[in-house]
Amino acid sequence: MSDSIEIISWNLNGIRAVAKKEALRWVADRQPDILCFQEIKATEDQVPDDLFDHHYPSVTVNSAEKKGYSGTMTMSALLPEKTSTANEIDTMNEGRIVEQHYDDFVLFNVYFPNGQKDDDRLQYKMKFYDDFLAHCDALRDAGKSIIICGDVNTAHKEIDLKNPKANAKTSGFLPEERAWMDKLVEHGYIDTFRYVHGDIEQEYSWWSYRSGARTKNVGWRIDYFFISDDLAECLEDAFILQEVTGSDHCPVGIRLQC
Prior knowledge:
alpha+beta; six-stranded mixed β-sheet; globular
């Protein structure tokens, strides 16, 4: 990784809706090296051709079996050596993972499950979490450096959402969900935004569409970049692009150079 690379992640809440709003036009100016999208809600043939005026030679779409639901997509100016959708973790075939192996790292673009529907769904989310971490740890044991990005669907600490006490019994801020994020960090994965910015407050990546939450900045930080600790010295910056609109989430990103 001799050159600086920028990776940006964004839960689009529907790629066709975002394209219709022309909410991806900023990409042509910024030209990140890799774009990771979650919740595209589209099959590969439904992805608009004219998202932005910038060409990415590698495009991987992992769509859910259920139409108009979930799905992930990675667009890269770098050519991966290997691409997988990790179906042994995404057992419900919801298009939740794009795993790509590059020269210097393995990149995971993940749309982690939401556990708010019912207890069964929460248990599926927790199993997904555990299976995913075991998969990453196995790659690390094999000598790989890891980058994880996407919508984790959990705010880690009280500082990561506006109203922690009111949401203490809500999936997305439950003790067991937060404990898994503690475990992720204990296993040697760094929350890049906190690593760079420390305990800066009111930095969120998702806002409810209700009650003008985004205007009031009543939000949650549930979109993350984690890197394995061997990449810490390569981390140049981590950021949240709150000014980018078009979804109920905003993009997050990192820059790396080794």
